[in-house]
From TrEMBL:
Presence of keyword Oxidoreductase: yes
Location (main, coarse): periplasm
Pfam families recorded: CCP_MauG
Record InterPro entries: Cyt_c-like_dom, Cyt_c-like_dom_sf, Cytochrome_c_Peroxidase/MauG, Di-haem_cyt_c_peroxidsae, MauG/Cytc_peroxidase
Keywords: Heme, Iron, Metal-binding, Oxidoreductase, Periplasm, Peroxidase, Signal
Protein's recorded name: Cytochrome-c peroxidase
Keyword tRNA-binding attributed: no
Amino acid sequence: MISRWLLILICINVHAQSPEQKLGEALFFDTRLSSNQRISCASCHHPDKAFSDGLATSVGVTGQALNRKSTSLFDVGKAKFLFWDGRRENLKDLIFDPLTNPMEHGFTSDAEVLLRLNSLLDIQQAFYRLNGRKTIDKQDVQNVMVAYLQGLKAPQTAFDRFRSGDKNALSASQLKGYKLFTGVAACVQCHQINEGRFTDDAFHALGAESGKISKKLPQLLAQTEIARKNGTLGVLIATDADVAELGRYLATANPMDIAAFKTPSLRQVKKLAPYMHNGSVSTLSEAVRREAYYRASMEGKSYFLTPEEVEVIVDFLRVL
């Protein structure tokens, strides 16, 4: 009988070049990498949704909605910070975080994850063929998953052809949007083109959500300190919506970082609705209006985008 792992490998039409990438891709789609065998990494990171999930906030192994929207994984290997709050700075450290979060993949420890993997004969054999060892360890899992994730490159688009010199790659409307994006609308201040990733790899607080938690800050900050010491910060973010709104503070403990979130890449942004860290904005047009309004307000500017300007910017964004 053909193994479940091989069926997964066949069904996903593997394009990875190395054995490490192939095995990492298989694990990425394998629901056995969750405590109740109901979800996989791909449950929150669908390839057909630019490796996001199309939900306002992701749903974990228990079926309960969490408090953060899943991010696209395209070009994640180039990201300087990971998660909306940047609490990880390299992929290897991130790999076991969702696996060992009881609200996400449902395992309670690294050892429990490894016990599951070492109990699966097909997975064990695959790792043996890769490295000649019978026992799978944490580094083995990290290596193959990182290899796969680093290979997730955003597809080439009309914008890339435009950057390469094809003056006809963008329509007149898209070209107007591009000029606004990089000009008076100042979108490019945060969404820097930056190798075509459209992010500055930085964190910004626009003030849109911080008012909701301002009166609760002493209590919330105390909660996070306890969770940080106990190693349960990830669980707290997943279960407490107010804590999740603390943003970058959760990684730095710097009060200046409260409610600041990472600038997301705009690659394949048309597939990433709803928008913002908490999925609170349903359309790309509204996201553009909101970002432009708060940026102008915070900088004391009187210039705001007209509806027509918003739509040509959106038209441009759709070709990223």
